[in-house]
Design a protein that fits this description.
This protein is α/β, with parallel strands linked by helices and 590 residues long. The chain has 19 helices and 20 strands. The chain folds into five domains: 12-108 and 257-275, no CATH class; 117-210 and 217-231, Rossmann fold; 278-328; 362-426 and 498-558, P-loop containing nucleotide triphosphate hydrolases (Rossmann fold, 3-Layer(aba) Sandwich); 439-492, no CATH class. The strands form five sheets. The protein has a six-stranded mixed beta sheet, with helices on both faces. The protein is flat and about 100 Å long.
Length: 590
Amino acid sequence: MMSIEEKASFENFLSTPYVEDTDEIPKQQSGEEVTTGLENFSLTVGEQGRSDLLEASQDIKIEGFSISVQGRYLFNNTNLKITNGRRYGLVGRSLEISSKIDILYCEQEVRADDVSALNVVLSADKKRSQLIEEEEVILSEPEQTQQNIDRLNQIYKELDAMQADASEAKACRILSGLGFDQTMQHRATKNFSGGWRMRISLARALFIEPTLLLLDEPTNHLDLNAVIWLDNYLQKWKNTVLVVSHDQSFLDNVCTDIIHLDNQKLHYYRGNYSKFKKMLAQKKREEIKEYEKQEKKLKEMKSAGKSGKQAEAKSKEMLSRKQEKGAKEKENLEPVKLLIKPKEYVVKFRFPETHKLRPPILGLKDVSFKYPGQEYLFKQVNFGVDMESRIAIIGPNGVGKSTLLKILVGDLEPTVGEVIRNKFLKIGRYDQHSADQFDVKLTPVEYLRITYNLEYQECRKRLGSVGLPGFVHEIKIENLSGGQKARVALSDLVSKAPEVIVLDEPTNNLDIESIDALGEAINLFQGGVIIVSHDEKLIRDTNCQLYVIKNQILTAFKGDFDDYRSELLDYLGEEVIRNPSAAFSAAIEE
């Protein structure tokens, strides 16, 4: 998660090789190069962009800027336009940050110390903290002068103007929405894990309501309840938001605009992510038509006796005239290039056909579980899975969702009770740590060949079907990124040919296309499915029955996802905002 406060400064920049096809950066670039002091990183802004940066406005407009990493472009002579009060989603294949680069990481680290979570959030308001500190200093003096009294009156006026009395209630509300109960809110930050400290960092950013809130995969460290609260909260956000996320429902619910990074350029679309997908599909169809038209014209000119170079020159001339006709400022036009056939990024796979097994297939009978020296996570659980099951286990972090899955697959034994498994049952498990089991000295192809006795081409086919680029197939697993390892693990899951698949936060290292492909594969799968996920769209698309862990009890939720969402927000005392994601899905079905 990447959050930015108004006075945030660049703290760190880590880079790994940028692997997409990009042009090398020329040694001399027009415009002004901004020196950052960070090796391997270059930012260039054109002269027009410089003048726009000087305008006194809460809008952001930078024209003709470029950003490079290790001599390769990430953004190349493109324009950034951010309008105050809009909520932007930044999407595109180049934004698989974990597998390419960590860009301008502006995380305000929450220190692990004795300060409580609540006070860390309150301290984010620097002005309020300074006034309260000054008040305490004045009140601690043994004698009060008239000057002190006058200053105290001024402090109280300033605190009243900023509604300081309501600050603690506001901070508590935000922390509660992100999953902190009252006890946790007063717990020292040193007693929280890194994931929970990330939530505190997010709470700080929300608390001060910055002019620009920048979020990088904010849902990755949140459970489903916190994601539901956050997207509802941000729908009422009055300032500007720029978010990078692979959670389509979150982008649908929160965003008013989408910025698409494609071929090093930023393209702007009004509306949420679902509307963007429809517009992008139409744009791709038009691009294919234009490309086919160009190729047909080239073929005709070559048939008429023109050489290949002459035909290409003529086509470029025609494209140049078309570009000039549609351009506002001719001096900013880039050199004309022939149209390239649009590349399609397709992730599509299926689970193998299953063997029908007689029930009981997998179940828990009177199961209770606790870790040594701790309270029971759940008691007297009776739960069954069959070949038609589509189950999503939900609840806040820490209630035992992942532990329940570990008991089902056999990693843990119940403290009390019995696990029932069909002796012929094969269980396939996938989570964000699945790749840890691999022999990292092997390549993905070698791993599949050795583990499943597959032919070389079949290994390549399976790896390609889950979106792993061909050049990665022969690289040792230890040298792959987190996202690439996740795809190897997904291919491993498919190759197991299981009757039941168990998925624990499967979307964390997957891009949007892969998450969609996983949902489609689950819908075609003939076996049982159990999911723990914070991804609303995956749960909706697979039509999962919701099971809730609460107060040490696992129960089937009576209602659909919208009912659960409304019930949760009502419990948190939040006004329920219309759910754009659900509304769009309903419109498609009609």
